[in-house]
């Protein structure tokens, strides 16, 4: 890196009085220590779990979250090797009180269709549902039990996305309940490799969720 | 720097360097312009989707965001009120401040206001972002430390015009400063800001209320020193500002190195990056293959996938070390920028790629950036010949020509 052209004045400190120099020295010390601590914390945050991070996990998290959180493991250690399709179906209730169940709607496929041949995909197409589902799986165990606040929020988030995209109802029939499932298909191995994998998709089917008024605010405004 | 100098002399030269000047004027200007431009284009692209993404009634509702931020204490002005008008105002504020920061109008104030816009939107809906948002978020915080408007900014142009004249009272600056203070005071009195003085802020022990008021006071102090203490007070502030800028520059550079080191070192541990098939998989993910024909054609060649997979890991791991050698560093920068252009198109991640290219640019040589600035200035003059004739004085020197880039 070259120096700033033309602005460099050798010896900016030369003409300063002693008190002024002390102020500068104190400022320099604070700035240097802060920068060193910051870089140390960020390094420990992105580094793999190690002796230092295990012993100081709380202090590091306190410093980093929420504003300096970062994750640069792009497609690492291994890239995602499966396509996860989030699908939903609805139970509708007509004016006569009779209920019907719709077929499954594949919202991931809808996202995919909107991303295709798009130079600038929107975050609503590329990240919204994909990351909402990640959020759900990260905050639930295999028995679909939510872990605290985040678990509950992720359920409501998925439900609101789904209800919003389903559009509230059909032909005057309102959505009473929704059911969500994820269909995971492994990416077929390359034609030039001799690997084989399971071509059949795996299903993760959640229970029926009642749709409350709080889940409908977006559908109403669309 | 000569290595034959004794340690003491080298140390004092180093101190002169970091106190006497804001280093990397062009590099930091590129970061400012590039990232605020990326953020601006993103905001305009998402304009039709803004309610769904950040609005009070979006899928991630105001009330849900409120519950999450009560837990993680992230800063966002969007939760100060659940009104629809407030949401529109904050989104518009983010757009305007991004544009003004790119232009370099009242740069130091705009770095703060633009950061408020970035954090307000991103922290409001934290599950919408990707790596690109993450880069913009961090750099928005770091830019506050920088004197990033010294070149290629309206500020620099105004300063050049005023050169030699006695400093006026700067009415615009006073009005802007007063408005910022009034707005912050009004927000804290009228809004439910939940900003603490001592907790949950940008640094331990410093809450957002303290941080924002401190920035405002420093701005006032700066003006006072400029107007009434042109001697030593001004010189001390100047030195401190240089120190802060240079520390910020170091942090930004280290951050870019950490990004590549993390991305590279974790890949080394992955079996797919080891057997050289890794790249095949993202090219077959529905969310990351906007051009399936192209992606599948590329993924169809085992050799090409192997070379690109190994090449990616090698470049990412090597990058921080190549900073020791100027020529190798520049070659690698070009390779990485090209790779990010490829990612922008192939994986459909234009904003992430643009943000990374801009972050890479902090390592570009000054001579190259000056030539680039001059070329952009000439291109602009050709496109807008009338303007060029109106302002002939601006094109007298290389420096002036580069300054017209955004002017």
From TrEMBL, chain A:
<keyword id="KW-0812">Transmembrane</keyword>
<keyword id="KW-0472">Membrane</keyword>
<feature type="transmembrane region" description="Helical">
    <location>
        <begin position="20"/>
        <end position="44"/>
    </location>
</feature>
<protein>
    <submittedName>
        <fullName>Uncharacterized protein</fullName>
    </submittedName>
</protein>
<dbReference type="InterPro" id="IPR043857">
    <property type="entry name" value="DUF5819"/>
</dbReference>
<dbReference type="Pfam" id="PF19136">
    <property type="entry name" value="DUF5819"/>
</dbReference>
<keyword id="KW-1133">Transmembrane helix</keyword>
Automatic annotation (TrEMBL), chain B:
<feature type="transmembrane region" description="Helical">
    <location>
        <begin position="85"/>
        <end position="105"/>
    </location>
</feature>
<dbReference type="InterPro" id="IPR052964">
    <property type="entry name" value="Sporulation_signal_mat"/>
</dbReference>
<feature type="transmembrane region" description="Helical">
    <location>
        <begin position="21"/>
        <end position="44"/>
    </location>
</feature>
<keyword id="KW-0472">Membrane</keyword>
<feature type="transmembrane region" description="Helical">
    <location>
        <begin position="246"/>
        <end position="266"/>
    </location>
</feature>
<keyword id="KW-0812">Transmembrane</keyword>
<feature type="transmembrane region" description="Helical">
    <location>
        <begin position="331"/>
        <end position="359"/>
    </location>
</feature>
<keyword id="KW-1133">Transmembrane helix</keyword>
<feature type="transmembrane region" description="Helical">
    <location>
        <begin position="203"/>
        <end position="225"/>
    </location>
</feature>
<feature type="transmembrane region" description="Helical">
    <location>
        <begin position="297"/>
        <end position="319"/>
    </location>
</feature>
<feature type="transmembrane region" description="Helical">
    <location>
        <begin position="174"/>
        <end position="191"/>
    </location>
</feature>
<protein>
    <submittedName>
        <fullName>HTTM domain-containing protein</fullName>
    </submittedName>
</protein>
<feature type="domain" description="HTTM-like">
    <location>
        <begin position="20"/>
        <end position="368"/>
    </location>
</feature>
<dbReference type="InterPro" id="IPR011020">
    <property type="entry name" value="HTTM-like"/>
</dbReference>
<dbReference type="GO" id="GO:0012505">
    <property type="term" value="C:endomembrane system"/>
</dbReference>
């Amino acid at each position: 890196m070259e120096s700033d052209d033309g602005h460099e004045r050798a010896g900016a400190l030369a003409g300063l009085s002693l008190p002024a120099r002390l102020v500068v020295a104190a400022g320099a010390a604070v700035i240097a220590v802060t920068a060193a601590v910051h870089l140390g914390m960020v390094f420990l945050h992105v580094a793999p779990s190690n002796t230092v991070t295990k012993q100081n996990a709380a202090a590091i998290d306190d410093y980093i979250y929420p504003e300096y959180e970062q994750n640069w493991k792009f497609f690492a250690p291994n890239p995602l090797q499966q396509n996860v399709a989030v699908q939903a179906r609805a139970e509708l209730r007509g004016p006569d009180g009779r209920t019907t169940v719709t077929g499954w709607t594949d919202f991931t496929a809808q996202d995919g269709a909107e991303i295709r041949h798009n130079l600038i995909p929107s975050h609503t197409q590329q990240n919204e549902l994909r990351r909402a589902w990640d959020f759900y799986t990260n905050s639930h165990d295999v028995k679909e039990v939510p872990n605290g606040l985040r678990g509950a929020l992720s359920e409501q988030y998925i439900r609101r996305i789904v209800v919003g995209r389903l559009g509230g109802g059909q032909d005057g029939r309102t959505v009473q309940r929704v059911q969500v499932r994820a269909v995971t298909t492994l990416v077929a191995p390359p034609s030039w490799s001799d690997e084989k994998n399971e071509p059949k998709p795996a299903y993760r089917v959640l229970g029926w969720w009642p749709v409350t008024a709080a889940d409908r605010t977006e559908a109403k405004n669309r | 720097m000569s290595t034959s100098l004794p340690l003491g002399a080298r140390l004092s030269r180093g101190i002169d360097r970091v106190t006497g000047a804001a280093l990397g004027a062009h590099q930091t200007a590129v970061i400012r312009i590039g990232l605020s431009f990326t953020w601006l284009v993103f905001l305009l692209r998402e304009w039709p989707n803004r309610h769904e993404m950040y609005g009070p009634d979006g899928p991630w509702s105001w009330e849900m965001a409120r519950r999450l931020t009560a837990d993680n204490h992230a800063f966002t002005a969007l939760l100060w009120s659940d009104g629809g008008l407030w949401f529109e105002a904050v989104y518009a504020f983010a757009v305007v401040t991004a544009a003004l920061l790119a232009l370099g109008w009242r740069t130091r104030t705009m770095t703060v206001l633009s950061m408020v816009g970035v954090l307000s939107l991103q922290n409001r809906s934290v599950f919408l972002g990707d790596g690109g948002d993450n880069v913009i978020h961090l750099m928005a915080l770091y830019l506050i430390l920088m004197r990033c408007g010294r070149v290629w900014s309206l500020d620099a142009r105004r300063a050049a015009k005023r050169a030699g004249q006695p400093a006026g009272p700067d009415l615009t600056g006073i009005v802007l400063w007063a408005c910022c203070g009034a707005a912050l005071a009004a927000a804290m009195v009228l809004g439910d800001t939940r900003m603490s003085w001592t907790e949950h802020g940008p640094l331990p022990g410093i809450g957002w209320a303290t941080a924002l008021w401190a920035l405002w006071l420093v701005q006032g102090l700066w003006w006072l020193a400029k107007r009434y203490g042109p001697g030593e007070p001004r010189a001390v502030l100047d030195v401190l500002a240089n120190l802060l800028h240079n520390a910020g520059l170091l942090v930004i550079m280290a951050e870019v190195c950490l990004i590549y080191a993390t991305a590279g070192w974790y890949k080394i541990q992955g079996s797919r990056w080891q057997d050289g098939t890794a790249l095949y998989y993202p090219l077959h993910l529905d969310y990351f293959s906007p051009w399936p024909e192209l992606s599948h054609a590329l993924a169809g060649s085992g050799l090409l996938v192997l070379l690109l997979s190994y090449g990616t890991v090698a470049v990412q791991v090597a990058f921080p070390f190549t900073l020791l050698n100027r020529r190798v560093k520049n070659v690698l920068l070009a390779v990485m920028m090209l790779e990010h252009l490829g990612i922008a198109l192939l994986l459909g991640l234009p904003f992430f790629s643009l943000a990374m290219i801009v972050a890479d640019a902090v390592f570009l040589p000054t001579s190259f950036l000056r030539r680039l600035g001059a070329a952009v200035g000439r291109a602009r003059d050709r496109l807008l010949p009338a303007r060029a004739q109106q302002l002939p004085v601006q094109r007298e020197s290389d420096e002036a020509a580069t300054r017209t880039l955004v002017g």
